Amino acid sequence: MQGGTGRAAPAYYVAIVVLAVALVAGATLFGLLVARGNTQVPAFAVTGPHAASCPVGSAPACFGFQVSNSGGTQGTAFCIVTAALNTTALFLNDQRSTGVLLSPNETRTIYVKVTPTKGDLASAPVMLCR
Q1: What is residue 17's three-state secondary structure?
Q2: What CA–CA distance (Å, rounded) separates 9 from 32?
Q3: Which CATH number fits domain 44-129: 3.30.70, 2.60.40, 2.40.30, 2.170.150?
C-alpha cells in the first residue's frame, strides 16, 4: 500500500473473519449460560421443635421437627440431633443421625425421642440438616 491507495493485505481479511467468528461464538456461549439459569439444587430448612406424642414405649418425651426442601430438585437431607443438657436424644431409629429424601416443595416431620438422664425434665434437642 503505497501512497495511501490500494488494497489491504489478505491477512487483514483473515483477521476480520477470525474476529467475527470469535464474536459469534462468544455471544452464543453467553446466551446459553443466561438461558440455563441457576443450577437446580435442593435447599433444606428445619423448623421446630414442637412437643409430639411418642410411639408407645419409645421414650418419656418426643419432639417433632419440620424438614422442608424449597429447592428445585429432589435431595436427601442428612440430619443430626444434639441432646439438651441432662438428656439423651435419638431419632426413632435409635440413631443420632438420619437421612430424609425430599422432593421439591415437600415437607416432612421428623421425630426425636428424648430421655432425661437426671431428673424428669425432657428438654428439647437441637436438629440440624444439610
Answers
A1: helix
A2: 36
A3: 2.60.40
What nine digits make up the cell of 23? 464474536
Distance CA 26, CA 35 (A): 14
pLDDT of the chain, 130 residues: tens digit per residue = 455 567 778 888 888 888 888 888 888 888 777 766 556 899 999 999 999 998 887 889 999 999 999 999 999 999 999 999 999 999 999 999 999 999 999 999 999 999 999 888 899 999 999 9
> Smallest Cα–Cα separation from 46: which of 118, 3, 116, 98?
98
The number of beta carbons lying within 10 Å of the beta carbon of residue 114 is 23
